[in-house]
């Protein structure tokens, strides 16, 4: 078709000068071009079909080798015993390193994540707890990190996610910990003050917020439901477009969508997934105030995994209330050349006016130079607890 249009234009122009001869010549010129295009397209499709067969055969072969890995490990108790996040991170980094286009790194990482997820599920699907109900950004983070072959378990609160993983009813949990615009989610950090669980991974999810309702008309909206953080992320847009509407914070964006589907005068701010689940129409979006709006999630589990080669370690440090206490416990990091990515303070449970510090540093706790720095920190007399060492999120 791309060659046929120009041929018609030539024929029409020539018809003004030499009606009979030009029209005939144009038709003869157009006919071979159409035939050639059809032959080329058929040949290209044949090549694609052949490549698809090779891809399918290779995926099946990979799945068979994954079964061999399972046999080599012997009969284990559950799917979680076969899962190795450090190995998956290494595979995905190799995918990025090899990529010369035309597909983006993100696309190829997603494809390989799904292949690995399906191969692992041959043993048994991983059970992943998340802040529900269905349609939340936490559920998106589950599928981004574990693939769609994992079994996502919607739970009522972040506390329940921790409880289900600790009890063994879920293999891992995915919980939000900070947003690029709104900062740390304190309720998640507070759970680590009493929970024995470890951090096994992290997920960075680009978050787009949409205003959605049953009618799809902004004129009908008198109240807006959303999670408190999402309302904060869209504060400027709401002030400009729905200043008079009532804003109601709920436990999750999916819960907001569930409520909005029951009334014509209500709307929800949530991701598109929640809108699809609850049958809402998009009024406007994306409406987040910052174009780089990203939420970081933590993967929580019951054990520490080996190094992947590009890792981050999280620590919980509780110091005595005395001058220089925090400096003394952190000084070994600087001396050993370990970079500190983040530090956050929270009131320590059960001790008035004492604080615990959540710290993220580069490297894996079992590898130098961080291992040497940690040994000195733990010998300082202060309480230093390892919360986890895990692969840095794949970009």
Question: Helices and strands in order, then pairings?
Answer:
Blueprint lengths: L3 H14 L1 H55 L11 H14 L6 H16 L6 E5 L5 H10 L4 E5 L2 H9 L5 E8 L3 E2 L1 H6 L6 E9 L3 E4 L9 E5 H6 L1 H7 L4 E5 L2 H8 L5 E5 L1 H7 L2 E4 L9 E8 L9 E8 L6 H11 L4 E8 L7 E8 L7 H9 L4 E9 L4
Parallel strand pairs: 1-2, 1-3, 7-8, 7-9
Antiparallel strand pairs: 3-4, 3-11, 5-11, 6-9, 6-10, 12-14, 12-15, 13-14
Walk me through the structure:
With 395 residues, the protein is α/β, with parallel strands linked by helices. It has 13 helices and 15 strands. Strands 1, 2, 3, 4, 5 and 11 form a six-stranded mixed sheet that branches. Strands 8-7-9-6-10 form a five-stranded mixed sheet. β1, α5 and β2 form a beta-alpha-beta unit. The relative contact order is 0.11.
The tally of strands reads 15
Shape: globular
Structural class: alpha/beta
Q: In angstroms, what is the radius of gyration?
A: 28 Å
Overall structural domain count = 4
Mean pLDDT: 88
CATH class of the largest domain: Alpha Beta
Question: Can you tell me the CATH topology of the largest domain?
Answer: D-Maltodextrin-Binding Protein, domain 2
Task: Report strand %.
Answer: 15-25%
Helix content: 40-55%
What's the architecture of the largest domain, going by CATH?
3-Layer(aba) Sandwich
Pfam families: ACT, CM_2, PDT
Pathway: Metabolic intermediate biosynthesis; prephenate biosynthesis; prephenate from chorismate: step 1/1; Amino-acid biosynthesis; L-phenylalanine biosynthesis; phenylpyruvate from prephenate: step 1/1
Function: Catalyzes the Claisen rearrangement of chorismate to prephenate and the decarboxylation/dehydration of prephenate to phenylpyruvate.
Domain Prephenate dehydratase: 127-302
């Amino acid at each position: 078709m791309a060659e046929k249009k120009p041929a018609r234009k030539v024929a029409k122009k020539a018809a003004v000068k030499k009606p009979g001869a030009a029209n005939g010549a144009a038709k003869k010129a157009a006919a071979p071009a159409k035939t050639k295009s059809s032959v080329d397209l058929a040949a290209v499709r044949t090549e694609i079909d052949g490549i698809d067969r090779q891809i399918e055969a290779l995926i099946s072969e990979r799945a068979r080798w994954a079964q061999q890995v399972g046999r080599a490990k012997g009969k284990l108790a559950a799917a979680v015993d076969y899962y190795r996040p450090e190995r998956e991170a290494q595979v995905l980094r190799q995918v990025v390193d090899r990529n010369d286009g035309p597909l983006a790194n993100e696309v190829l990482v997603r494809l390989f994540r799904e292949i690995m997820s399906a191969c692992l599920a041959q043993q048994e699907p991983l059970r992943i707890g998340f802040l529900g109900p269905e349609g939340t950004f936490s559920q998106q983070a589950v599928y981004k990190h574990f693939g769609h072959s994992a079994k996502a378990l919607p739970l009522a609160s972040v506390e329940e996610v921790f409880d289900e993983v600790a009890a063994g009813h879920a293999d891992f949990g995915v919980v939000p910990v900070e947003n690029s615009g709104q900062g740390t989610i304190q309720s998640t950090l507070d759970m680590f003050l009493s929970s024995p669980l470890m951090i096994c991974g992290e997920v960075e999810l680009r978050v787009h917020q949409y205003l959605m309702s049953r009618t799809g008309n902004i004129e009908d909206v008198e109240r807006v439901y959303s999670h408190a953080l999402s309302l904060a992320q869209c504060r400027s847009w709401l002030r400009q477009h729905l200043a008079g509407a009532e804003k109601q914070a709920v436990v999750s964006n999916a819960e907001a969508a569930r409520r909005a589907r029951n009334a014509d005068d209500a709307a929800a701010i949530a991701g598109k997934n929640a809108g699809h689940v609850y049958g809402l129409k998009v009024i406007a979006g994306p409406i987040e105030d910052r174009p780089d709006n990203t939420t970081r999630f933590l993967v929580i589990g019951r054990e520490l995994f080996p190094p992947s080669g590009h890792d981050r370690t999280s620590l919980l440090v509780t110091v005595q209330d005395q001058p220089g206490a925090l400096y003394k416990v952190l000084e070994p990091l600087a001396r050993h050349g370990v970079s500190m990515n983040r530090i956050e303070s929270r009131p320590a449970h059960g001790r008035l006016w004492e604080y615990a510090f959540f710290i993220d540093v580069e490297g894996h706790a079992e590898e130098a130079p961080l291992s040497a720095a940690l040994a000195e920190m733990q010998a300082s007399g202060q309480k230093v607890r390892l919360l986890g060492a895990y692969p840095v999120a794949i970009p």
